[in-house]
Every structure is written in structure tokens, then in C-alpha cells.
Amino acid sequence: MYRIKKVLNHNTIIGIQTENHQEYLIMGKGIGFGKKVSERVEVREEDAIYSLQASTDRGDARELVKEISPECLEIANEVLDEAEKIFGKIDRSILFPMADHIEFAIKRMKNGEQISNPLTEDIRILFHMEFKAASCIAPILARKMNLRIDEDEVGYIALHIHSAIEDEKVSQAMQMARAVRECISLVEEEIGRPIDVMSLSYNRLMNHIRYMVARAISGEQLKVNMNDYMGIKFPQAFQTAKVICERVGKSLKCNLSEVEIGYLAMHIERVTSDERESSDNK
User: Which residues contact 253 (CB under 8 A, 6 or more apart)?
Assistant: First the structure.
């Protein structure tokens, strides 16, 4: 049972649980319709409940909920419903920073402003299912507000969803995408042309870099050292991998283990070889 502290709109209220006396954001169809402050309500199974005790990167949930429109909270809730269909149980406390981002995105769209996200394609490949879940916001905004959201904005929503799944900050996910883009660009520079993003070797390379960055952040170490073999067998790929590892280490402000060089060189050699074969067959 909850006692209503504030009615935000027909579908959203702030309630105080009668047992623990803590505040919650409660969303559900018609839950606030015709209701008044101090009135008691029963929460239904289909209603969404969010604790306002949570603290996020963008501030305390209790403060954020005062600044974010109920409509944006509802939109974020719908996006998380879609994410839950794909991923199962997720950390729904991401609702508040996601709704905050959506509100700013809507303001930009209404003002005719566009943000540029050079990492959109990398996010789409790195976090494929998250991007798919985030894409549901397009029909929601079209239906509710007659607004068209571009894919650069969807990419940022995908990072919020990733944060809800992996218990990883949005800034960390962005850092990973940026590091992956830097690595791919260096490989493309080395081979003198863009890599086919649809190729299997590209996806393997990208996923390897993703986990390499994750290991660098967590301090995890690879156990087998392939440096001597790769350095002799494929010296050019090894040198490229060495440069990339040094740059990524500086970008992440941490030292990548030297063991990473050999593994990265293996993937670089594979993608370079595939690109050569593709070029020769044309």
C-alpha cells in the first residue's frame, strides 16, 4: 500500500510506502487519475515502481524526478520495458538518467538542433541488441510527440541500456566505443583503406578490442603470451598492434598488458589478409 505524496499526471505518481516510509515513483495506466495527495493506492502487478533513494551519475533520483517531465519518465519506462523483453531482468534505476537524456534530446529536436555522434556505427555493432532495444524509442516519440529521432540519439540511448545490463557506467561504455573506433581507424590507416564492417573478421576484431579494453579497465590479465610468435611471423601486424596498445593505454589512462599485443596482432593480420583477398578478387 502507498500513500500519494504527489500526482505527476494520470499515469505517474510519487508515493510513500506505508511500511518503510520511503518514496517511490510509480507508473501505470490511470494510477493518478482523479487521485489526491494523501490518498492510499494499491499497486498493480503491471505497474512500474522505482525507488527514489537511488543515486545516479546525473544526481539523486529524488532531485531528478522534480526536473524531468512525467512524459519523459514514461517514455524511458517504455524503452526499459522493451529492453527487458530482450534481455530479461535489468537494473531499471537507469530510468532517471535515461529520462533526463531523453528530455534534452526532445528539446534539441524541437529546436531543430542535431548532435553528432561519430561513434554511432561502432555502438550499433558493439552493442547490437542494446541498439535494437533503443530503436523502439523512434515509434514512441513519433506517436506521443510527432517527433523524429535520429540514429545518433538512439546510439546514446543504447549506451544507457547497456549500462542497465552490464552494471557499467554510460561514460565507460562510451570510452570503450571511442577506444574501439581509435583502434579500427589505426588498422584502416595501416592497410590504406576502410574495412568492410559486415565482414566476420571485422566483427571478431571489434569484439576482441572491446574485451581488451574491458580487461584494461578491470586489470584482468591474459595467460598465454603469443608475442614472440606473432612478432616473428607477422612483424607488420605486430608493430601496428603495439602502437594501438600504447595509444589505447594513454587514452584509457592505464597500462595495457604487453601480452595483449600478440592477440591483437593476430586479429589485425586476419582482417588485413581478408581485405587483401577481397581486393584481389575484385
Answer: none
